[in-house]
Each structure stands twice: as structure tokens, then as C-alpha cells.
Amino acid sequence: MAKNGRLVSLDIFRGMTVAFMIIVNTPGSWQYVYAPLRHAKWHGCTPTDLVFPFFLFIVGVSMWFSLKKYGHELNGSSFVRIARRVLAIFALGLFLNIFPYFDRDYSTLRIMGVLQRIALAYGIAALICTTVDRSYLWIVTAAILLLYWGALALGGGSDPYSLEGNLALKVDQAILGKKHLYTGFGIPFDPEGLLSTLPAICTVITGYYTGGILGKGKGTKGVFKTLVIGAGLTSLGLLWNKFLPMNKPLWTSSYVLYSAGLAMVGLGFVYWLADVVKFQRWGTFFMIFGTNALFSFFLAGIWTKLLLFIKVSPSGEKMSLYSLFYENFFAKVAGNMNGSLLFAIVQMLIIWSIALILYRKKVFIKL
User: Fold this and answer.
1) Could you give the CA distance from residue 274 to residue 295 in angstroms, rounded to a whole number?
2) Residue-wise DSSP of 117-146
3) pLDDT at 217
4) What angle do CA 238, 243, 245 make, to 5 degrees?
5) Any long-range contacts for 236-243 (C-beta under 8 Å, 24+ apart)?
6) Which listed residue, of 47, 174, 197, 282, carries a Cα 20 to 30 Å from 266's Cα?
7) Structural element, H or E, at residue 200
8) For 147-205, what is each residue's pLDDT tens digit?
């Protein structure tokens, strides 16, 4: 643990997640992406499908440290802190959905998104963790996951876990309206919708519980406990998958256990290396990302949207800077598949270079 009370391993693990998140979000061409860097089409879980739950899990771990100064209790100060953070992150998410088309038709603006889900899941999880005794958090988590499973199973159509027949679709369309939902699945369906945010709260709570284990500085005992619980959750998720398919867009309960379990195992190993063995140099690259994680993710979104927005006509035909760089350099140098991956890695390194400047100047942007 660093002198300022931060877990070095947490910054490294968070940085690893952000780096991978940027890479999977910015291929040179979506036509040329290696299978592990794609989301599962519907049911299933690829390495890419683990990125978002890992980040939510990390939000939960960080929450344990941020709420420590308030005694892990809900009071005036902690409530203001939680509410301010929820509003700030949600507002940034909305800004990303709007940018750079500020003169757009707002009747079709997508309301939810990655940052919006982080905001809501964090806010509700924080209220739960500051009002419920830590020893009962697993009961609350189990209750939410079981109730969500029941709601999906009983509230959906004849195929309750399908794209067209799931309850989350019906709830989001009724509350948010079809025009305000994501359309990337071919129909108005939001993978970061309202109802599916409920099980995502459990991902954050699991992270909070893990923060309590590692934050007390129990060394190898903490590592062992984290690894055992993580392996157990992963196994339960795999078992539950036989009855409730793992599905990231629906954030199914089996997916929650499986991804949160793997996140615990991953953080446990990094914690052992960085905070117990004190072998930290290997993680310096990721630590730079990890100290300004949300800002780096937000900046990556702005940068990507600018590349797509700015159009040029190098040979008479208009194309975005994004396509220009990929087609005229990366694809020609490394081919379609490797060029697409190389493009994504370079985008990640561009954002990392800005994070490096902030890191060296000791500027840590907190939301």
C-alpha cells in the first residue's frame, strides 16, 4: 500500500482495465477485429465482455477507501459526496452522447450509457453499503440477483432472455422511450438500461466487499481470502449459466457472479505482486492510467468522436480522419486485421501520453 493509503495494486488493475477498454472500443475498422476483442453477439462472455464489469468492480473497491473517511456511514457529508459524484459522472456521460452534435434533435438523444451506468450503480451501491451492515451485504446482493432472475424469467415473453422478448427492453422502452435508447442491436434496446442496472449494483457491492478485505492490510491472508471467494463466485456463475445464460447486454445474475469472481481473482494476484511482494515496476505503465481512470476514459471518447466528426477529402471523396488514418497508414503497414489492432493500440497510447503528463505534474482529476 502506498504512503497516501492508496492500494498500488488497485491503480495498476484499474489502469489495465482502462487500457484494454480503450483498445476494444477503438479498432481501426469494426470489420477487422480479432474474436477475443469482440463482444459476444448475445449470450456468452468474451474477454471484452469482462472489461465493463471489471471497471464497475473497481469502482466498488475504490468506494471502500473513499467512504472510509466517513466511517462507512451515511451522513450529511457522505451523502453530499455520493450525490455530487453521481451527478458529475452522469452529466459527463450525457455530454459524451451529445458531443459534438450540439445542434442535434434532442428528442432522439440516448439517455443512458457507460458513464451513466457507472453513476447510478455507484450511487445506489454506496447508499446500500453505508446503511447495511457489511456482514449482510451478501444477503442483499443475493436477494437482488435472485429477484432480477425472477423478474426476467416471469416478466419476459416466451423467450425471456432473447433480444426481443426480455423484460429490460419493455421497462426501458416504457420509462425512457424508444427514441432515447441505443439502436446498435437493430432495435431500440439499451445494454446500459435502467432495469439491467440493478444487477450491476451487485458488481459494485462485490468490489466494495473486496476493498474491505484488502484495505485492512492482511497481506497473504487477504490475498488467499480474495482468491478463494473469487474462485467460488466464478464457479457459481458458471453453474448458474446452465439455468440463466451469461449475457452482458442483460447483465444477467450469472454474468455478475462470473465476472465479479474473475475480477476478485485478478485483483488478488495483482495485490499480491504489488502490495505484498512489492514488485511494482512492471505495473508503472498501467498505474499512470489508473490514477486518472475516468478522465482517461472520457478523454478517449472525446478524441474518438472528434476523429469521426472531422471530414477530409484527400482524393475527392469525403472520409473521417478516423478512416483516413486507418486505411491510408495502419492497414497499408500491417494489413487489415493487425492494422486495425495497431490503430487501437496507438489510440490508447495517445490517451496514455496525456495521462502521463498529468501523472508527472501530480494532477489527479477526481469526480
Assistant:
1) 24
2) HHHHHHHHHHHHHHHS-GGGHHHHHHHHHH
3) 72
4) 65
5) 236/261, 237/261
6) 197
7) helix 197-214
8) 999 999 999 989 999 999 999 999 999 999 999 999 999 999 999 999 999 999 999 99
Amino acid identity, position 110: R
Amino acid at residue number 241: N
Retrieve residue 8's grid coordinates.
Answer: 498500488
* Arithmetic mean of pLDDT over the chain: 95
User: In this structure, which amino acid lies at residue 266?
Assistant: G
- The 3-state secondary structure of 310-329, one letter per residue: CEECCCCCCEEHHHHHHHHH
Q: Is it true that the peptide bond before 100 is cis, omega within 30 degrees of 0?
A: yes
89: which DSSP letter? H
Nine-digit cell string for 219? 497481506
Separation CA 169–CA 178 (nearest Å): 9
Looking at residue 157, what is its pLDDT?
A: 85
Q: Side-chain half-sphere of 10: how many Cα atoms within 13 Å?
A: 25
| Helix, strand, coil in percent for the chain, rounding step 5 | 70, 0, 30
Nearest CA to 109 out of 120, 96, 122, 128 is that of 96
- Cβ atoms of residues 296 and 18 within 8 Å: yes
Which residues are CB-contacts of 67 (< 8 A; sequence separation ≥ 6)?
A: 78, 126, 129, 130
CA 123 to CA 64: how far, in whole Å? Answer: 13
Round to whole Å and give the CA distance between 205 and 60: 6
* Secondary structure class of 10 (helix, strand, coil): helix
Taking alpha carbons only, the member of 31, 48, 39 closest to residue 331 is 31
The count of C-alpha atoms lying within 13 angstroms of the C-alpha of 134, restricted to the half-sphere facing its C-beta, is 13
pLDDT in tens, 224-251: 999 999 999 999 999 999 999 999 999 9
**In this predicted structure, what is the pLDDT of residue 313?**
85
Residue 158 is given by DSSP the state S
Residue 367's pLDDT band, with cuts at 50, 70 and 90, is confident
